[in-house]
User: What shape does this take?
Amino acid sequence: MNWDKLTAVEFTDAVDRCGGVCLVPLGVIEKHGDHLPLGQDPIYIHDVCSLAAEREPAIVFPYYYFGQIHEARHVPGTIALDGKLLLDLLSAVCDEIARNGLDRIVLVNGHGGNSSLLRYFLQLTLAERRDYTVYLSDIPRPAEAARELLRARNDGHAGEIETSAMLHLHPELVKLDVYGDYGQTLGRIAHVREAGLETGIWWYADHPGHLKAEQVEFTAEKGRAIVEGHVNHLARQIRVVREDAVTPELLRDFYERNDAPSNRYP
Ligand SMILES: [Zn+2]
Assistant: This one.
């Protein structure tokens, strides 16, 4: 059930039917090599959410394409909003979703660069009382059936997985005739990373063209297996969220005890 395609009357019924579960498909607008669309992540993850919600009832929030992507500010088409704004915006959106009766919100991430931000967002939900629960579904490993088909050893961005998935979902958006030849890892700060150090410039150091991939055979068949595995995984998660009686109760308990810290455990 796609939030933006429901009428107001249908929406009320849908909230009841889905047990208060809302999926927020999070992507970002970012270059994906030369051959995939800037909206690869939001398009893919919105499709996965919509398909999973057909199996396990949930309302799917419209495309949410504001995410963490400062590392792509040097390439055309990037939308990189300030980090504090991203956190505030997501918080306000969750408040609005809950105000509409959906109190189990699943952030379904489709962009690797969002992972740290979303985990921090989860921690921030403990800072002040909320009358809803937020869950994070981050990008899973491809399912076993998909892994059996995959061949690339180098595939971290716009490679075999993402290209094949898009060939399955929206083949008209894939331009294989202009596939870039700059997918190898440059390793310009290997000495720093080998010492166990991290820096903000690591992605630019290794993959300035936002392609981390080798050219193997990209097929819609591989894409179908990838999407199918992800949809199954998310449908299972929707069921767990809908039936989860413990987490919302723990949150209530935690917020209450925040007001009067004590030495009682638990
Ligand atoms: Zn991507």
